[in-house]
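Troubleshooting entry. Yesterday's outputs looked truncated, so today I'm pasting the complete records for two proteins to confirm everything comes through intact. If either block looks cut off, that's the bug. Protein one:
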Amino acid sequence: MHTTLNKCHSRLIKMNMYSLPSQGIPGCPPGLEYLTQVDQLLIKQKVELVEALVGFESNNKYEVRNSMGQNVFYAVEENDCLNRQCCGPLRPFTIHIIDNFGQEMITVSRPLKCMSCCFPGCLQELEVQSPPGNTVGYVIQQWHPFSPKFIVANEHMEPVLKIHGPFCGWSFLPDVDFDILTIDEVSKIGKISKQWSGLMREIFSDSDNFGIQFPMDLDVRIKAVMIGACFLIVSEVPSLITHVHYQI
């Protein structure tokens, strides 16, 4: 894994990477200072050539960008070939999110669970740590027969926000939105949007681009958890992703 992170670090030096602030902010985990300054992010998957051409499942890699298109973090999935090929989107994973200095700022972990909307015991969840070893929150799937729904919880497993996807995963538009709601579901405060990445990519790979919008003053630890929520949505609702309307 250290070799993979070193390679990522070398690539980051060559990328249009925004210089992250180094000063500490009270109550903010080290390395997350930049998140206090943003209210939206784009998570863009990097497509491996072999996966795009033949559909061979490989470890996912992502760039996390700001609204100006500058790379602020880089994310790489840690997994083994057996899990990738046998479990596909259901596989357990650990995603390491690193800064422009090659330091790991956020760790996202999902255990292996069966996927079934009919059995509450099979619901998905993931844990977000920042820095690694310090839990800042969880994303937990709620049971619902027709719509993907998730709870965003803090480090004490106390619900903070909710995420609701489209009914039955149906969408006649190239983008798919997941609304971020207050815990009482009265107010919409943001959204996670799955953005169309092109016909050939959608057919031959699981490449995805996701945008996150949240309040500027949202707790920076919950912002980190929302980044983790994107990765759970990518893996948890492949049927939704493949039902988007393709167009060129």
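Protein two, checking that the full record survives here as well:
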Amino acid sequence: MGTFVGHFVPGLAFTFLGLWHTICTIKCYKLKGPSHFTSTTWFPINTRNHFIKHLELYLLFTFSIVVIILQLINHPFQALNYEHASMYLHVALYSFLAIVIDLSPSSNSLSGLVTTLAASVFAQELLLLHFHSADHVGLEGHYHWLLQLIVAASVVATFLSGISSNSFPAAIVRSGCVILQGWWFMVMGFALWMPKLLPKGCHVENGEVACASEEITKKAMAVANLEFSWAVAGVWVVVAFLTLRLDWKLEYRQLQGPTVRESDGLKLVNRLDNGVGLV
């Protein structure tokens, strides 16, 4: 995915997915309360229609299959593209099995398996990024190393939310990491594959980013560190804003019998004051 589109489109998809998860996690926590909150790795839409209910998973599965096909068609004999396709293969397997499990009679008892599958998706992504066949060095390698930090945090947060399903911090960190991964993909697309935005003294050569000197590379890495820090801060500002601003409350409907009207009550009090009893 050494192109602008190859980074921007998946980044946009991850960002929307992370925002969806963040909003739904906050909603579930505020509606159910700390004692009844249970984290989940996907969120159904409240409807009887099977397709719409599992729309998130169907979109994930479709997007993953499309990316796999594009990766294999464009460069069918390059190991790099097989690695990218394998990342999305795990996403496709997760979304497909999550649908199957949810439709099974024992879906409640298998919810932990879905969380394990989600953690496996991030773990496989981390593995393939770390042992990438493309030897990312210099500035491009630094951006990918920072990406690995995000994916590693996603692995840890997902495993923790599986171990402690009532933990709101683990669930919200996992959702925030998905947003951050999407943002960082888009930052990489702009910073590495938009010629006008490349640091001065750096250029794209044979599909790789190269800088004129070691000093220029170090300065560009320092800028990347700042971009990463700002991206992390931006994500948590968004998460905090959504947590504080979004408000859902349970509405209780109290069933009660017929009551004495206020005017009838006043008449009754007057009658009692005048010594008149109830008939």
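Both blocks look complete. Sanity check on protein two: DSSP finds nine helices and two strands in the chain.
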